[in-house]
Write a structure and sequence with these properties.
This protein has about 120 residues and is α+β, with helices and mostly antiparallel strands. The chain has one domain. The protein has 3 helices and 5 strands, in the order ββαβββαα.
Length: about 120
């Protein structure tokens, strides 16, 4: 499923979002698909998944980080919560990033041509 990793921007009410792909078990994916257009689906328990997007701005790969995918109201992308580890992406999701870091990420992504390494 495609979802958003949201990172708080320190000193702002804004968040920085990465659009990412997460692999769910067959059972979780079937359940998420079954509820995709169902109002109230956000009450569903989060689904465990594995991050399948490698983000280019981290010194170690982001592939296969453990996640919890939180369904949101119909029409909104799921929220992807990383398990709390010492990986820089997980640390940033927990502690936030500065506006300078947002600019650094934007420059790196623009320079690479897109937001995902394939």
């Amino acid at each position: 499923v495609k979802g958003l990793i949201e990172i708080p921007v320190i000193g702002s009410d804004e968040v920085f979002s990465w659009g990412v792909w997460v692999s769910l078990s067959r059972e979780s994916f079937s359940r998420a698909a079954e509820l995709w257009d169902t109002p109230g689906r956000e009450a569903e328990e989060p689904y465990f998944g594995w991050l399948t997007t490698d983000l280019p701005v981290y010194p170690t790969a982001t592939l296969n980080l453990k996640t919890h995918v939180h369904t949101r109201p119909v029409g909104e992308r799921p929220f992807v919560e990383l398990e709390p580890t010492d990986h820089p992406l997980a640390v940033e999701q927990r502690t936030g990033i500065t506006l300078d870091r947002v600019r650094e990420i934007a420059a790196a992504v623009l320079h690479s041509g897109d937001g995902e390494r394939r």
